Amino acid sequence: MYDSIPASLHPLPSRSRALLTGLALAATLAAPGAQAQPAAGAYPSKTIRLVVPYSAGGSTDILGRLLAQKMGENMNATVVVDNKPGANGTLGCDQVAKAPADGYTIVLGDVGCLAMAPGLYTKLPYDPLKDFTPVSLVARSPLVLTVGAQSPFKSMADLTAAAKAQPDKLNYPSSGTGGPNHLGAELYAMQAKVKISHIPYKGSAPSVVSLVAGETDFGFLTAVTIDSQLKAGKLRALAVAHNERLASLPEVPTMDEQGLKGFQADAWFLAAVPAGTPQPIVERLYQEIAKALPDAHVKAKLDAMGVLPSALKPAASADFLKVEVAKWRQVIKTAGITLD
């Protein structure tokens, strides 16, 4: 302020005036809202961490690595996959829920840790609906109603008729209590109004073996899990648990086509960031995911896995998650399942 007054009229010595000018400048820079703001195009300015809450090699991990590579290329940035397995995916989800809301930590969660966990655990350390901002429902991996090659069941109608005739006699395997294979079958039981028995295994591979050997009667598994045994003629796919057929199984009708209208049991994948992440960053991440999915290499990989790309927008993804949490909570409650 003194700089606008002629030097001869300054009431303070020049050294004191210089000190006051410096203090005034510092105060201005420290004032709320006065800090230099990053340019809109500055994001990302450092490595983005894409947390996969499961071990390497699974469907979530494969999809995560496809996205990380393509997003990194398109954004001219480094996007790294960070596997954080444990507690059925809830460990990795919890870490992201508590991470800084700055767009540099993303979780590629699935139906298990984001929609089924709230109904399975009474002390879940995060709330999927409050602690995350969905970026995009990235893709769906519909479960496939499958039987062994020796099975007498040729259609979903055959299976349902047998289950109604003999309550609790027909059994199905799962990769573990509370997982998509388990709850997908329980959803079928609710909608088809049948009673069936659950046999949990430790992983998907033993479930497939049980169907091939005739130890279990039917199962709900992903297309990638049953692919090799289908091709070998040791398993038979009866229906896709979705309202859309799969490119990898074009001849297999959906459960909706066979009478269970609207039936969907998907092992879906949803990208989310910590709640409070600035909306422009959420939108930027969505745009990059939407740009990556149609890539020829990515699409070919997803088709081979029996995965349907989605690229649902952030607001629609948030609505989807609400519906899924409520849906699976009801299935879990009706079936009396708990993991506590």
Folded structure, characterized:
With 340 residues, this protein is of the alpha/beta class. Helix content is 41%, strand content 17%. It folds into two domains: 47-140 and 267-335, D-Maltodextrin-Binding Protein, domain 2; 143-240, D-Maltodextrin-Binding Protein, domain 2. It has helices at residues 14-30, 59-75, 90-97, 111-120, 156-165, 180-192, 204-213, 223-231, 279-292, 296-305, 314-335; strands at 48-52, 79-83, 105-110, 132-140, 143-148, 171-174, 197-200, 219-222, 235-240, 269-274, 308-309. A six-stranded mixed beta sheet has the order 2-1-3-10-4-11, with helices on both faces. A three-stranded antiparallel beta sheet has the order 8-5-9. A two-stranded parallel sheet has the order 6-7. Strand 1, helix 2 (59-75) and strand 2 (79-83) form a beta-alpha-beta unit. The termini are far apart. Mean pLDDT is 89; it is low at 1-40.
